[in-house]
Write a structure and sequence with these properties.
alpha/beta, 2 domains, 21% helix
Length: 441
């Protein structure tokens, strides 16, 4: 199901009292449709009716839904509902019927998840998931009021957050998942630790939350399952190939989550080069993907600002993972503002907040109104709650909506949803916009 397919409805109300064409002066082509109504208005609603099943089968191979679906005109005055693939110009000065195609833009998102052994290793794989042990001594701090809770693995936290994100945005995004390394990888100082599937564990598609959770290791998985190196470049290459097969007009994103520096480069001459050397192809691979329109958000799990040693430990030598992930985030095309370009998380709450924020950025709350309304002061917006025609003054602090200024005169009229209106739209994909006219009631 796409972001707008879940129930986007746009209502058009015409026959304005001050346009020189009252209810008794309608155009001949529309006189029949209004002959049984005493009102001087008629509301035409275009509703996207694509279902989850239709979305999933809309594109063969990848399972992605089409970015634009035909709408259905619903005539509340008693007319029959008729599907249409055409586009009829709507004139707010005319009380006639109109059919409008609503563009349905559904982002395709690949989750690229680190399944390396460090995600559960002792002691490094365990972390203070609820931030009640600030000095990391294994004892709840005295100033913490919440009950002390045991540390859990980084993987368990990641699983919990993926579960929430996948289910929370199940109706708004086409999602898939890639694990690096794959479940077939082994805890061995050889190439078997660097195995990544050529195809994703779950291909990008609609309503995929259950499939994603079923495909990744369980929350309580231990080192017998969560093992291997950090072949991040191979993981993103699999995700890129999948996203390139999605419809060209769909926005495409990767969310790369890792707790360490990339290794397992292609063409390594020996095992030392496989594990003890940083794979600098990760940044160039993401930069190439960004140039093709596939942007990558980078999330780090408990990344320290320090340079690694030179011991034979399976981790890249003399490498500052923090600096490397900053470079990777810049290459991905959507770095954070400020000195820290990636989302560095030190507990599960921060990890949840980071993925929530990324998901909100992927799902835009800026909408083009096409056709554009003539009477801008009489447009009414409802997203769960009716916000009516009153615009907010400060989108950063208020709930509701407002118009955005045009950069060019030929640009469509554009609105931005703010605060709770934006959040509700992103979670449900549902909005109702009515074009009303002066004196229309």
């Amino acid at each position: 199901m796409s972001i707008l397919a879940a129930g986007l409805a746009v209502g058009f109300t015409g026959a304005c009292g001050d346009n020189g064409k009252g209810s008794g002066e309608e155009s001949e082509s529309n006189s029949n449709s209004n002959s049984n109504s005493n009102s001087n208005t008629i509301t035409i609603t275009a509703t996207a009716t694509v279902t989850a099943t239709e979305s999933a089968s809309a594109t063969e191979g990848s399972g992605s839904a089409s970015a634009t679906e035909a709408t259905t005109a619903v005539l509340p005055t008693g007319g029959e509902t008729e599907p249409t693939g055409g586009n009829t110009t709507f004139d707010p000065n005319d009380c006639g019927e109109s059919v409008v195609n609503i563009p349905i833009v559904t982002p395709s998102v690949m989750l690229v998840l680190d399944k390396s052994g460090s995600m559960v290793a002792t002691p490094g794989g365990f972390w203070d998931h609820d931030a009640d042990d600030a000095d990391d001594d294994g004892i709840q701090d005295a100033d913490m009021v919440s009950p002390a809770t045991p540390k859990i693995t980084r993987w368990e936290s990641l699983w919990s957050v993926v579960d929430l994100i996948a289910n929370g945005f199940n109706g708004s995004m086409n999602m898939g998942v890639v694990l690096f390394p794959s479940k077939a990888a082994k805890a061995d100082y050889s190439a078997v630790a660097c195995v990544v599937n050529a195809k994703p564990e779950v291909a990008v598609g609609a309503m995929n939350a259950a499939n994603i959770i079923a495909a990744i290791p369980a929350a309580k998985a231990d080192k017998t399952v969560i093992q291997g190196g950090t072949p991040a470049t191979k993981g993103v290459n699999t995700a890129i190939t999948e996203l390139e097969a999605a419809p060209a007009d769909q926005p495409k994103f990767m969310i790369l989550v890792t707790d360490g520096a990339a290794n397992c480069p292609d063409g390594a001459p020996d095992n030392a080069a496989l594990f003890e050397v940083y794979d600098d192809k990760l940044a160039t691979t993401l930069a190439d993907a960004a140039a093709k329109g596939i942007k990558t958000y980078v999330v780090g799990i408990d990344i320290s600002q320090e340079v690694s040693g030179t011991t034979k430990d399976g981790n890249p030598d003399s490498t500052n993972t923090y600096d490397k992930l900053n470079e990777v985030a810049i290459a991905g095309g959507v770095p954070r503002a400020g000195a820290e370009k990636f989302f560095n998380t030190t507990n599960q709450d921060e990890l949840q907040a980071a993925l929530d924020m990324i998901s909100m950025q992927i799902l835009s709350c800026t909408l083009d109104l096409d056709p554009s309304p003539v009477y801008l002061d009489y447009v009414e917006v409802t997203v769960k709650e009716k916000y009516g025609k009153m615009q907010v003054m400060d989108c950063a602090t208020e709930d509701g909506w407002h118009y955005l200024e045009k950069v060019n005169p030929d640009d469509p009229v554009r609105i931005e949803l703010c605060g709770q209106a934006c959040a509700d739209f992103q979670m449900t994909g549902m909005i109702d916009i009515q074009y009303r006219c002066p004196n229309s009631g």
